[in-house]
Automatic annotation (TrEMBL):
Assembly behavior: Homodimer.
Enzyme Commission (EC) number: 5.4.99.12
Record keywords: Isomerase, tRNA processing
Protein name: tRNA pseudouridine synthase A
CDD domains registered for this protein in UniProt: PseudoU_synth_EcTruA (cd02570)
Catalytic activity: uridine(38/39/40) in tRNA = pseudouridine(38/39/40) in tRNA
Domain Pseudouridine synthase I TruA alpha/beta: 8-102, 142-244
Gene3D superfamilies xref list: Pseudouridine synthase I, catalytic domain, C-terminal subdomain (3.30.70.660), Pseudouridine synthase I, catalytic domain, N-terminal subdomain (3.30.70.580)
Top-rank taxon: Bacteria
Taxonomic source organism: Gulbenkiania mobilis
Pfam families on file: PseudoU_synth_1
Binding site for substrate: 109
Active-site residues from the entry: 51
Protein purpose: Formation of pseudouridine at positions 38, 39 and 40 in the anticodon stem and loop of transfer RNAs.
Amino acid sequence: MRIALGIEYDGRAFAGWQTQPHGNTVQDTLEKALAAIAGHPVQTVAAGRTDAGVHAAMQVVHFDTTAARSANAWVRGVNAHLPADVAVLWAHEVTDDFHARFSAFSRSYSYFLLTHPVRPSLGAGRVGWFHQALDVGAMREAAGCLLGQHDFSSFRAAQCQAKSPVKTIARLDLTETDGLIRFDLTADAFLHHMVRNIVGALVYVGKGALDVAGFARLLAARDRTTAPPTFMPDGLYLTGVGYPESHGLPASANPARLAFWR
């Protein structure tokens, strides 16, 4: 049978999602815990491969198993074998044609950015940081340039393996409360480092180093070498994966799971 899981993790201690020879990844950690419950080796497939230091409030994975276990066993049983910074949120049996990556039609990310003269300590590794206030109005105006379908080569990492740089952003919202800026993005898919590169460029707009027209030219240039640096991974969270309703899976994280940044 094929099982889909919703996973939450704090990425600070891990070298990203994808398995590595040293084993210090979320995938390696999860597969060991699943094997303990399944009684056989398990290989997982994820909706998206998060980088080192990036978090997830809703990662979706699937795996195949011959073990007949209850949903409760795949949640509470697996969690008993996981460290405190990784948790299974839900488990659903799915049809054999379900694929955590290829069945998805959208991904959503949130980035939390603290603007304050002093770096965070309680939020260290869990929130991005910039040392001065930013013009959120200008940032919001620039972000509007990215809505719709575009070639996002200017926001693509050099090592990106995607076949095409053309993606469609359906949502890019910025909200600010007491110096904490939240970026919420939804797209059909994201390029490697795309969200962090967008945040980095919008920070340049917010601090006055790049105007809105210049930001639009950056997008049109389709040239990563002309863009601002990639922003830190600390404040980035995968928050949802969209699937056809026929699969019966939650589309996004429960907002309460991110309540610590309200």
